[in-house]
């Protein structure tokens, strides 16, 4: 009876909310029409209200002001229109499911409890006076995530409010219909969470707004420190929390920051697509997304050949020669280390006094200023001036020298030849340009000599333009040579810095020099190279970005972090990762980004120990792979035991996997066959695709669809699938200790089922 009464009461409240939403939509449609018409009218009559008069300076000012006023009117009207469209989207979302929870809170000292309905956005009543639905990010809503019925409190920007939570209720509302509701106790409706987690995987990660757990809520709303580190086990919701946190920051600082001032650093484009729907679903604009590779490409891609992280991984994962493997790994880990940064810093201070290399300034094959002259000029300034400051002075000097040189070229033979070669069209163009620039009038142009002179100047100027630009961009600094010099054992630099180089420095030099000779910047060289370049040429900074979130942070090196800190000097950072999923070799033996000691100021760390992605059975098996006693707490969701199948050969492997895929397809939407490398993937694809329709995911795949996917483990990073098939977990494939976490990462992508196959002997990680 009591239940029936509650049910009716809730249906009544829902109807009340839906009526308000309908009214708001009608009102908005009406307003929107008005805004549209208004903008249309302004556009049509734009020039009617502006009197263009350019006779005197005052008239020009007046005309300018009139135009400015009209433009402002138009943009106000368009902004209002955009706001209306945005609000409409919010109302439409609320129409489907206005709220997902209610708490009744009796504040200390008050008589009546407050009924707080919580949804993805705020809804005010028709008079815009009272809150009918609270935004999940409002301070008061946090009690829903943080407390169980009983004593509760929440924090506003100025104080803590105490009281008692009398009721905590959850709703499932779909298409505006109340489908179910339940009062919850200890945690946020385990039933609801269980229901959500049991669903099939999607091509995009979902918003978790209705079931955020208390420990996740702390991270989402954390504002204290400059650096927030989140270390969480596989599937603990780090990515989900990161996205909810962006939405929270946008709400909390709504008058201060916009979505494009928040940046999420992600592992690859596929991951970008995977996460890009959450914020729009919550009614917010998407933050910016960037991969480290994109950043490197942007800065170095035009001048150098680059090695991509997947290429580096592929090389190491397929390397059979242990000696070479060790050598390569040593080089990679050293170049990612703080010891290398120290070496680099010493090198930079050495360069302050000598050793900077420059390029000759060459025009049409003639050396106009030699590298030697530039070096002498550079080092003529006191070393108390920073290298970038001195380079600015050099730049100015070079541009002046170029201007002088330009004059000496006007009468050169090549200029005359160039003039003779000008066709009529080019000639007329040059002539018009000279007229336009006011060098002479049409009447004076009949003076042939003058015409020739001016044209000559123009030709020289044009020819020198690329050189002038490259000087402006400091291209006369031989940055590749400067970096290369560091690896030259015959150079005095080596003698000076010898005390800082590691034991295997000679090997590192031997590996590095041939690459640099090919103008190839390997992945391990990219961050140090950019660091050196910034210290020499002046730092590149982006002060627009207020907040940076680094997902899968375990895979960035300390050197990369330094670069990011320099690039975003004003940003606060949220750094999320899992040490057990470290797959990039540059992080081995280096301090992890998840270590607060790596940060010089305010770094707070929060830990997530519970995994929500996989069934208990999958979590139990995958925890064994770690072999270091780490505990992963499983959310209590059961499923079939993972299977391990040993087959004698590849033919049998293909046959069994195909059969398994057929069975899994009946139940699941997304089945991933995870291989070790891209090469293994394409071989497997050739076999499997004859029998099952599958998608091959490569390093440059930007999006995937539901279905059967074949992908290397590094591309599956951060993503999840209903069922995972590990293609070949044999001892021959996964045996190096450095591959343990790689294998763990692959297996932990499974939500409901995990099937592991091995040709002959199984990997030691599972024994
Ligand atoms: N509070 C929650 N409510 C509902 N679902 C959740 C919650 N927390 C996490 N999940 C779900 O658990 C799964 C794993 O989350 P997510 O991918 O964010 O974890 P992760 O820690 O980033 O994992 P990994 O490090 O393994 O990539 C996702 O499907 C996510 O929606």
Structural account:
The protein has 767 residues and is an alpha/beta fold. The protein has four domains: 194 residues, no CATH class; 170 residues, P-loop containing nucleotide triphosphate hydrolases (Rossmann fold, 3-Layer(aba) Sandwich), CATH 3.40.50; 113 residues, no CATH class; 151 residues, P-loop containing nucleotide triphosphate hydrolases (Rossmann fold). The chain has 27 helices and 25 strands. The strands form six sheets. Strands 1, 2, 3, 4, 5, 6 and 7 form a seven-stranded mixed beta sheet that branches. Strands 10-9-15-16-8-17 form a six-stranded parallel beta sheet. Strands 20-25-24-21-23-22 form a six-stranded parallel beta sheet. Helix 14 runs antiparallel to helix 17. It is globular, with a radius of gyration of 33 Å. The mean pLDDT is 89. Bound molecules: adenosine-5'-triphosphate. Adenosine-5'-triphosphate (ATP) binds next to helix 4 and helix 6.
Keywords for this structure?
767 residues, alpha/beta, Rossmann fold, 7-stranded mixed beta sheet, 6-stranded parallel beta sheet, globular, binds adenosine-5'-triphosphate
Which residues form runs of ≥5 with pLDDT under 50?
none
Number of domains: 4
- Largest sheet, described in full? 7 strands, mixed
- Work out the radius of gyration: 33 Å
Number of helices: 27
* Number of strand segments: 25
Helicity level, as a percent range? 40-55%
Task: Tell me the overall shape.
Answer: globular
Mean pLDDT: 89
- Report the β-strand fraction as a percent range: 15-25%
Overall SS class? alpha/beta
Cα(first) to Cα(last) distance is: 57 Å
Bound small molecules, which ones?
Answer: adenosine-5'-triphosphate
């Amino acid at each position: 009876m009591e239940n029936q009464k509650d049910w009716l009461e809730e249906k009544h409240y829902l109807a009340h909310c839906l009526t308000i939403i309908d009214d708001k939509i009608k009102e908005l449609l009406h307003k929107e029409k008005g805004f549209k018409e208004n903008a249309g009218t302004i556009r049509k009559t734009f020039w009617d209200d502006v009197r263009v008069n350019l006779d005197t300076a005052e008239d020009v000012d007046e005309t300018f002001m009139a135009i400015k006023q009209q433009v402002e009117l138009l943009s106000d009207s368009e902004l209002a229109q955009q706001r209306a469209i945005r609000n409409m989207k919010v109302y439409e979302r609320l129409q489907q499911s206005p709220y997902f929870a209610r708490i009744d809170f009796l504040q200390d000292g008050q008589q009546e409890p407050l009924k707080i309905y919580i949804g993805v956005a705020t809804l005010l009543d028709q008079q815009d006076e009272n809150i009918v639905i609270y935004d999940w990010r409002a301070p008061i809503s946090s009690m829903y995530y943080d407390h169980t019925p009983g004593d509760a409190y929440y924090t506003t920007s100025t104080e803590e409010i105490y009281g008692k939570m009398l009721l905590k209720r959850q709703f499932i509302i779909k298409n505006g219909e109340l489908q179910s509701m339940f009062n919850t106790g200890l945690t946020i409706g385990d039933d609801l969470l269980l229901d959500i987690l049991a669903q099939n995987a999607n091509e995009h990660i979902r918003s978790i707004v209705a079931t955020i757990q208390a420990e996740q809520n702390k991270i989402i709303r954390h504002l204290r420190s400059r650096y927030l580190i989140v270390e969480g086990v596989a599937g603990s919701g780090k990515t989900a929390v990161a996205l909810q946190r962006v939405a929270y920051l946008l709400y909390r600082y709504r008058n201060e920051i916009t979505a494009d001032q928040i940046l999420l650093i992600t592992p690859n484009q596929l991951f970008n697509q995977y996460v890009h729907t959450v914020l729009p679903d919550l009614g917010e604009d998407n933050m910016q997304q960037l991969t480290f590779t994109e950043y490197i490409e942007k800065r170095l891609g035009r001048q150098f050949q680059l090695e991509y992280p997947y290429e580096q991984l592929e090389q190491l994962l397929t390397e059979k020669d242990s000696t070479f493997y060790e050598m390569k790994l040593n080089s990679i880990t050293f170049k990612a280390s703080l010891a290398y940064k120290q070496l680099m810093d010493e090198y930079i201070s050495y360069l302050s006094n000598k050793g900077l290399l420059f390029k000759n300034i060459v025009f049409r094959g003639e050396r106009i200023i030699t590298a030697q002259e530039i070096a002498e000029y550079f080092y003529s300034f006191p070393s108390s001036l920073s290298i970038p400051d001195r380079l600015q002075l050099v730049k100015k000097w070079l541009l002046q020298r170029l201007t002088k040189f330009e004059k000496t070229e006007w009468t050169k033979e090549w200029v005359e030849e160039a003039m003779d070669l000008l066709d009529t069209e080019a000639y007329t163009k040059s002539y018009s340009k000279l007229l336009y620039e006011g060098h002479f009038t049409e009447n004076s142009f009949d003076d042939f000599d003058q015409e020739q002179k001016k044209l000559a100047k123009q030709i020289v100027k044009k020819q020198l333009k690329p050189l002038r630009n490259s000087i402006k961009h400091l291209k006369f600094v031989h940055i590749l040579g400067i970096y290369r010099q560091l690896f030259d054992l015959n150079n005095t630099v080596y003698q000076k810095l010898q005390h800082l180089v590691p034991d295997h420095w000679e090997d590192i030099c031997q590996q590095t020099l041939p690459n640099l000779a090919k103008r190839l910047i390997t992945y391990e060289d990219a961050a140090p190279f950019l660091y050196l370049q910034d210290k020499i040429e002046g730092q590149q900074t982006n002060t627009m970005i207020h907040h940076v979130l680094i997902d899968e942070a375990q895979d960035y090196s300390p050197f990369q972090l330094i670069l990011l800190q320099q690039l975003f000097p004003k940003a606060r950072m949220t750094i999320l990762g899992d040490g057990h999923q470290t797959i990039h070799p540059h992080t081995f033996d280096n301090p992890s980004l998840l270590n607060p000691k790596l940060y010089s100021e305010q770094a707070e760390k929060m830990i997530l120990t519970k995994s929500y992605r996989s069934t208990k059975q999958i979590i139990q098996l995958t925890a064994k792979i770690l072999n270091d006693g780490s505990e992963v707490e499983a959310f209590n969701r059961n499923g079939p035991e993972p299977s391990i199948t040993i087959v004698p050969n590849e033919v049998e492997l293909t046959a069994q996997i195909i059969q398994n895929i057929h069975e899994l397809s009946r139940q699941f939407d997304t089945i991933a066959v995870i291989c070790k490398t891209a090469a293994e993937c394409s071989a497997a694809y050739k076999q499997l695709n004859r029998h099952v329709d599958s998608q091959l995911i490569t390093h440059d795949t930007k999006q995937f669809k539901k279905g059967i996917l074949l992908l290397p483990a590094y591309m599956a990073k951060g993503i999840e699938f209903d069922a995972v098939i590990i293609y070949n977990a044999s001892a021959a494939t996964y045996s190096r200790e450095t591959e343990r976490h790689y294998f763990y990462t692959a297996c932990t992508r499974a939500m409901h089922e995990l099937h592991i196959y091995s040709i002959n002997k199984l990997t030691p990680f599972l024994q």
